[in-house]
């Protein structure tokens, strides 16, 4: 019998659910760098920041997808600068810094690139694999922040937003090294926030889960026969959309969250609120191994 999978729902029409002011956009006059901006959560964040008036510098390895995302954002007003580069390469932070400086200097840095693949038991992992996990999930966060932070300090303000994961807040069996890197991103976020708060720079993190992206195509990976399980796994009753992270990012890098720094905001539809508990029906939950009906 061939398996059939769920179809993703249509994309939300607007790139942000927050109202946009045409006269005084929330992020008007701000220059924002977003890494991994071509697709998935990074694209959702880039679209939302652009929609709310930020001038964007977008970085990604996927030239065609980056051009398409940049063209979509240009329709809201300002054309983003698109840099085709690998954030794990040593020259990329300097390249990005120069591009942001040409626009007046980065006020916002979103370190979004990250990947859990390939997964597998720690006992089967290798030092080369650990190095790749470090480079993709933590190394570039340090390098990009190190390159762009001095300008923020010099100008007396800025925002760094790191994209971690719920896996940095809990264990992830089968992917221990990825989980450790994401936990390190959360710890780095908190420590750096304390270091640079006096300069007007805020540092926060997002912890996504279960968001439909090319890396984790949630709907297309869910067998149609278990469609009713989505609401049992995710308290919010659906998988996340990149726009959910765009809205959270707009909050965290705008003055709406002026007194929030060092925080990690879970954007997970509630999956970490009661881990190990599953809905059985409209009124009952279970944490026991049993049929969910
Ligand atoms: N999707 C989820 O449910 C989920 C859950 C937890 C954490 N996250 C985190 O959110 C972030 C984004 O995840 P996603 O699911 O949108 O990923 P994705 O793989 O769907 O998209 C990543 C984007 O980054 C680009 N990219 C990859 N490596 C790059 C590199 N070295 N240099 C420049 N660009 C690069 C890709 O081309 C792509 O456009 C990651 O840090 C990931 O760990 C996602």
Automatic annotation (TrEMBL):
Q: Name one Pfam family in it.
A: adh_short_C2
Q: Which SUPFAM superfamilies match?
A: NAD(P)-binding Rossmann-fold domains
Q: What is this protein called?
A: SDR family oxidoreductase
Q: Where is the signal peptide?
A: none
Q: Which domain of life, per UniProt? A: Bacteria
Residue segments, region Disordered: 1-21
Membrane-spanning intervals of the chain = none
Q: Which family does it belong to?
A: Belongs to the short-chain dehydrogenases/reductases (SDR) family.
